[in-house]
Amino acid sequence: MIEVEQLTVAFGSGAQRLAVVRDVSFSVPAGGAFGLVGESGAGKSTVLNAVAGLLGGWQGRITLAGRSVQERRTLADRRLVQMVFQDPYGALHPRHSVDRILAEPAGIHGLDRIEARIVEALAAVGLGPEQRFRFPHQLSGGQRQRVAIARALILEPRVLLLDEPTSALDVSVQAEVLNLLRRLREERGITLVMVSHNLAVISFLCDRLAVMQHGRVVETLQASQLRDGQVAEAYTRELLAASGG
Amino acid sequence: MSAPLLEVEDLRISFPARQGRFEAVRGVSFAMGRERLGIVGESGSGKSLTGRAILGLVPHPGRVTATRLAFDGEELQGLGERRLRRLRGRHITMVMQDPRFSLNPVMQVGQQIEEAYRRHARTGRAAARRQTLAALEAVQIRDPERVYRLYPHQVSGGMGQRIMIAMMLIPQPQLLIADEPTSALDVTVQAQVLALIEELVSRRGMGLILISHDLDLVARHCDRVLIMYAGRVVESCRADRLWEAQHPYSRGLLAAVPRIGDTRTRLPTLDRDPAWSA
Amino acid sequence: MSGRAPRLRAWLSSDTPASRRQAAAGRWYRDWLALRGNTLAMVGLVIVVGLVLTALIGPLLPIQSPIDPDLPMRLKPPSGAHWLGTDELGRDILSRIIHGAGATLTIVILVAVIVVPIGLLVGTVAGYLGGWIDAVLMRITDIFLAFPRLVLALAFVAALKPGIENAIIAIALTSWPPYARLARAETITIKHAAFIQAAELQGAGAWHILWHHVVPLCLASVVVRLTLDMAGIILTAAGLGFLGLGAQPPTAEWGAMISTGREYLLDQWWVATMPGIAIFVVSLGFNLLGDGLRDLLDPKR
Prior knowledge:
By secondary structure, chain B is of the alpha/beta class.
């Protein structure tokens, strides 16, 4: 479903050229869940933004559902990939109601049965109809993140990118959102790519993961290897130890 | 055991709400000696406010009342602002979450530490500078001369926190309150900073209050743990006995944390019993 | 009747609105309540509403003509027959002030209608697209900003014929740059917010994002700025009127009234002072309202 080959992202030019992502390659099968782990500055969010089509100036090759995609995405491309961001407080427009937030993508793509889709999306993420006309400041962090997930799902994407979706949430709320993501993957067969600095969260949700440091992939391994402690690289081991594994 | 370092009895903090007042902290009581106490809770539990109340830093219009709020036997409530300021920063200090917001962006970090030092110790500039460099070394900063001249935006998160710790420990306080000191840091740096705090605290025989939302972190770095929910302490136990916690909220919280080793396909979610916040 | 008001209030303050209409109405209601709590802002609102009503209804009232001279009655002090006295042609000053309210209101509304869209358009486009478009638009803004308001208005009106329409255009041309700057600053602040990225991710084009996402967030500060600017606009218009370049005689216009009353300031002070007080009161009203709106729209609430 997703093939990333030798992705390189650099900012600046000449002497100040800084490569934030260097030669990153990985692939994710349809319906799979892939994790990108690393500390801040590792480049993992940049990789995600490039795959999402939010970033220009990258080099390499990105293939989604068999088609190679460029920086500029068509409307059809946009239906394929959606993303959930880290900060629930910045993810929703402060002056739009939940209803309007969910109706917008459907409107942009000219979908039919908008009313029904909104109701379905809310139900899919476990929000009741009483939340539908509320504004973001009337919702908790967990509820906002659910709305963000519902918004991502309205277009029925085949790929869902998640940028630290639970790091700003309380532990109990995080558990609910992680369960939700897992359930959605099982029910809809969506392909997931999740960025996180939290190995435990990645190990819960993902089958495979890549460990990044300073813009490069240090190691790619199965989640089961992580659980058994069978890691090859020292950096990975360091991360594992610091995460209490 | 000698008199407890800190005694808190029936602490209540309330804020004006649309109708009446909202109690953010509802009757918190605990006592601690020169040990490491962890206070754990989710957002809204009142843990940060509790820490701030000890220092008298609850923002207006919050109202703080307690039957007893005593440090080293001295009652803190009703103390004049001058006495409180002397206690603050000299005997009780606080390290907060993001060093970027705690450090003055237009002053060199060394100067800020020096300023903090000279406020409490009447010494000359030269002596203060020497102490500052010694403090930077104590927090394992290898190049104190160079770091002294840096500005806050030039230091990484981990180093910024070390600088904060240096600043907060230079006056030799007896109690350090750390409010989410490592939440803004990377995982590997977190471990280093917490180890540093632990080492300094034990070497000087200080008390430590570690406030966090991270149960595992607190269990690893504290002797005793208080778990707060909706303004109350629902559980108090030894850190190494955390896994035997009794209260359903504590058990729920422990179960809800994902762990690398486990193979659960679904994380148990908290069933919030309204009785817990009654 | 007694049952309807509390039910309506409950419907408006409901925490779980059941329709778009209810949610929108609820928001207006909450904003209204917040404004109502601010006494000074309410005073400002009363004054502004008073101005609007005076301008609309005033001329229809059976009051004395503002333009027919009545020479035997010239320069009479305030009395029972003429509450604010008469001017140099014997016209009732109160009546002239009431009729002049229309001119003032026209100027204020038309300037607002010109300045806000231009400022928003230039500012949001410059802020969102950045690059050379931003540079070009901002240099254009700087050029207009460099002109002193009154001097450009003078030049404009003197070049074309004096009159209220040209006065409005002249004032508007010099007033829009600060709004563009304001809109641009707000746009740059929110440009990288996650909800904007989410909209881009959905395939929204730049115009869609600007209109639906950016402008609603800029509107608050622009409206506040506008209300606070009103006083300045009114004074500039009065200044033009004072110089004879605004509404032409015999139309009643507050600035022109001050100008003609200038000669009689020492002995018949009311001729110039009364319209001056009117300008003062209206400017104050807009200022108070603007302050109240700013407190209301402060995102920290």
